[in-house]
Amino acid sequence: MNGCDHPGLLPVEEALARLLALAESAPIAGDEQVVLAEADGRVLAVPLVAGLDLPPWANSAMDGYALRLADWTGEPLVVSQRILAGSAPQPLQPGTCARIFTGAPLPEGADTVEMQENADVESDGRVAFSEPLRQGQNVRPQGQETRRGETVLPAGTRMGPIEMGLAASLGAAELTVRRRPRVAVVSTGDELVPPGQPLGPGQIYNSNRALLIAWLKRLGCAVVDAGILADDLELTRAALTGLSDVDLILSTGGVSVGEADFLGHALREEGELALWKLAIKPGKPLTFGHFRGVPVIGLPGNPASTLVTFGLLARPYLLRRLGVQEVEPLGFTVAAGFVWKKPGNRREYLRARLEHGRAVIYPNQSSGVLRSAAWAEGLVEVLEGTTLAEGDSVRFIPLSEIQA
Ligand code: AMP
Ligand code: MG
What EC number(s) is this enzyme filed under (predicted)? Predict the structure, then answer.
């Protein structure tokens, strides 16, 4: 796998396909049990199988009266019991009805519920129904949602609030999830200083570290903060050597063409390296390699490039290593609220917002400008070799699709 295979620029989907294939050959092995409340963002290692029917018993969808439809002749019925949610009813006495509330079990023998709004309570307490009744109405049958033994969530599902609620509905107190991938974050660059220290001449604050660490945590990773790495081969080699127990080394910077490329040197010496020139903007240079067997992804250093290449390439790679199938962000088509005159040879991801249903772009799309992404709600994809007039269709990828 070598950038030389493709003399031109590597299309984004080809780079993604390669990364996903690499991910599938290096699955994160190892599972752990977590209590349900700790499962948010984690990936199921085994399917969640229903251990019971849902609902476990037929119940009422309404506050009203439960009856056997055959008992309703038009003559008012005696109310023989009152069934609240959480109670265990008696079998329904033939020829009577039961007062029943939403979520309460249907008594044995009843097959129909009429809502209280359509019930007339006579002075003697008996009840008549004013509307025609249909057998089974307002009854939630046992197993309507799920049958015992059904797979409700397959292995590889990423747990979120909804999945956690679903697991809880099936009584799952613990889940078996993939262990957290250990990901080391390396920021390269002599110019970088961590926030909290004064800036010297020529220095800037390290923004990628904060961005990537927060993002990786949201992805359920255990982050190893490898700090800032000076542009120096010996230091680079030593730093990478110290990261032998991680699942991925994620570095930023130092992959631009023509630059003193110490990450690349270290990988060539102690492992292998593929340097890809991607047809992506912001982005373009991306390194994939191994250092002494540990996978390494080198993202470009400009913060907006880091954002786009992590979101569209490294994030799917990491999720696929966890066994997640759906790793690509959803996007939708919107009308461009801007003009794009110059066709590019790279696919552009413009930081954009929706205004009145149209995508408008941040005026400064420089790859060094992270503020554009903070302003944005999503990325507008402009395909290679295309121009756009206002109103043309473009794909809009919400940042919320990739930021977690
Ligand atoms: P490089 O890929 O090392 O040539 O970096 C490209 C640009 O991104 C340069 O302007 C760097 O100063 C900048 N850069 C690299 N890493 C970071 C970082 N961690 N935080 C902010 N800017 C960075
Ligand atoms: Mg650099």
Answer: 2.10.1.1
The whole model's pTM is what?
0.93
- Please check whether residues 246 and 287 belong to one and the same domain: yes
Residue 364 lies in a domain: yes
Instruction: Please name which ligand lies nearest the alpha carbon of 259.
Output: 1
- Report how far ligand 2's centroid is from the alpha carbon of 309 (Å): 16
Which residue range is the domain that position 168 belongs to? Answer: 32-53+145-178
CA of 360 to the centre of ligand 2 (A): 31
According to the 3-state scheme, what is the secondary structure of the chain?
CCHHHCCCCECHHHHHHHHHHHHHCCCCCCEEEEEHHHCCCCEECCCEECCCCECCCCEECCCEEEECHHHCCCCCEEEEEEECCCCCCCCCCCCEEEEECCCCECCCCCCEEEEHHHEEECCCCCEEECCCCCCCCCEECCCCCECCCCEEECCCCECCHHHHHHHHHCCCCEEEEECCCEEEEEEECCCEECCCCCCCCCCEECCHHHHHHHHHHHCCCEEEEEEEECCCHHHHHHHHHCCCCCCEEEEECCCCCCCCCHHHHHHHHHEEEEEEEECEECCCEEEEEEECCEEEEEECCCHHHHHHHHHHHHHHHHHHHCCCCCCCCCCEEEEECCCECCCCCCEEEEEEEEECCEEEECCCCCCCCCHHHHHCCEEEEECCCCCECCCCEEEEEEHHHHCC
pLDDT at 82 over 60: yes
Percent of the chain whose predicted confidence (pLDDT) is above 70? 97
* Residue range 156-196, pLDDT digits in tens: 999 999 999 999 999 999 999 999 999 999 999 999 999 99
